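Customer ticket, subject: "Can you confirm the structure for DUF7792 domain-containing protein?"

Message body: Hello, I'm evaluating your service for our small team and ran a test protein. I'd like someone to confirm that this is what the system normally returns, since I don't have a reference to compare against.
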Amino acid sequence: MADIVKQILARPIQLADQVTKAADEVCNFKQDCLEIKAKTERLAALLRQAARASSDLYERPTRRIIDDTEQVLDKALTLVFKCCARGLSRVFTIIPTAALKKTAQQLENSIGDVQWLLRVSTPADDRDDEYLGLPPIAANEPILCLIWEQIAILCTGSLEDRSDAAASLVSLARDNERYGKLIIEEGGVAPLLKLAKEGRMEGQENASRAIGLLGRDPESVEQIVNAGVCSVFAKILKDGPMKVQIVVAWAISELAKNHHKCQDHFAQTNTIRLLVSHLAFETIQEHSKYAIAANKHHMSIQAAAMAHSNSSSASNFSDHTGGKVDDDDNRTQSKIPHPMDNQTTDHMHNLVTSAMAVKNQTQNQPNNPIANPNLNQQQRQHANQQRQHHVGLTGTSIKGREYEDPATKAEMKAMAARALRHLCAENVSICSSITESRALLCFAVLLEKGPDEVQYHSAYALMEITGVAEKNADLRRSAFKPTAPAAKAVVDQFLRIINKEDSELLIPSIQSIGHLARTFRATETRIISPLVALLDDREPEVTIEAANALNKFACTENFLRVNHCKAIIQAGGTKHLVPLIYFGEQMVQIPCLKLLSYIATHVPDSEALADDNAHIVLEWATKQGHLMQDPIVEELVNKGRETMELYQSRGSRL
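Agent reply: Thanks for trying us out. I re-ran your input and got the following:
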């Protein structure tokens, strides 16, 4: 950095010396040239001072100010050379008096710019608390100079001053998107990250909030990620104060929302695991696969009993289902047996025996310094360090959380859910990581018992996860198979919200149920009726989402489409669809028309369709140009109409 600044300053210093030397030889306008010489000497002294302090100079304003100064000195040298002309050359040389005064003023401005540069680059401990002001160069763009000043304070100020500077950048970035781009271009990200890593709590909050506000577009997020934000934020999520972690989680959600490609970068720094741990804290026990793995040598009797119970239940279920545990993609329609069926009388004896065996195995391990007294002191110390390391992996991020007030804990959960929502959007690997932990169960519990904001972000996070599962069969089978307790708990909460109907969580819950349409079995009869009920005189947004969800149950890709179509008819779906197609808004008409077409295609012999004049509705729809603009809709309607003609007589259609 120092060498670069010296190279930048070399040319202006050389020009200043040439101007000073040439001013001694002028023949015309001597008084004006002497003024130019005096100001040039002052400027040269400041430039040499800047060269000596090159290691402390802030590079971005240095380049801008020195470039302008070089142009001014170049013009001054040309003007002074003209004043040195003699004889005939003087006759043909025109030197406006105003040009000399203008050059003198420009030199004065350059002096002010370099003085400001030296002041703003001086470490806070070495300068007075006086207001730095704005340099003359700020006349054209005052905000840029204000940004320079705040970034310079971030680089050289005390922790308190750096915190105030970060707060100023927060205000600038929040007010105007262009200011945010300027902060990034002028090198503000690196000192903000340094403050987030090293500052006090208020400074960390301000720095993290500023970074979240700066990432408003993919290009900006890319630059922030390249600056190392992922590792800094992961460190804070692990060890930082909870109030700072709240802001960090919000900032992560903003960055991931505005640029999906940064999701994997955060995943590589264990951000997902840390966010899930915050989500699960005081929600459920043993929330993460990572925590279980880290504490597997310290498993309690209760944990061993639970593990044995789960394995026994799985074995019983396998016996009942012939070893098949799958979703409707594999066309399995068996019922889930009760986990306590066929339980033997010595079941509890087996649980205790298994638990004691695990405990004895732990105590008899060769690396256990308590159980093996033959280890020397160095080996015992090494073993203790290893044990402490394993325990620390799960305890570090939880340390001190229990002492926070309930409002702070709730806000932390809300921001963690918000961050997970945007991190898992359209990302299969992150969704798999989330579902392999106990996060689904956490979301289910929070949907039922969490504060409003936590419920809101949890619902939308689940909507993103189920949306990815809809497109990925492996994730759908592993995370949302009907036998999975977490998946069942999530579906139960969605149904509770849908039956309630008046919650702001209704839309994401409907969408999530639609995403999971291919996971439900034929024996699952709770899903269709609540969705059909939402078609009856609801807000257009709710009606559209309900129709779209039912379309996913009735579409050709769903193996159980016939069963679902019959369930829709039985719930009175066609009675609601007909008036919606005739009299609804266009955005409501199209999904309802698609649903009626699917039903007519898959259950053409239904008497309910004939009674509700479904064929006439489809015939009418084919003549409506605004409904037939989409070729897919046109094909569905024609197929449904033709299929009904094959199965129903003309009398039944009238």
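A couple of notes from the result: Residues 59-83 form the longest helix (25 residues). Residues 300 and 355 are 7 Å apart (CA to CA). Feel free to reply with more questions.
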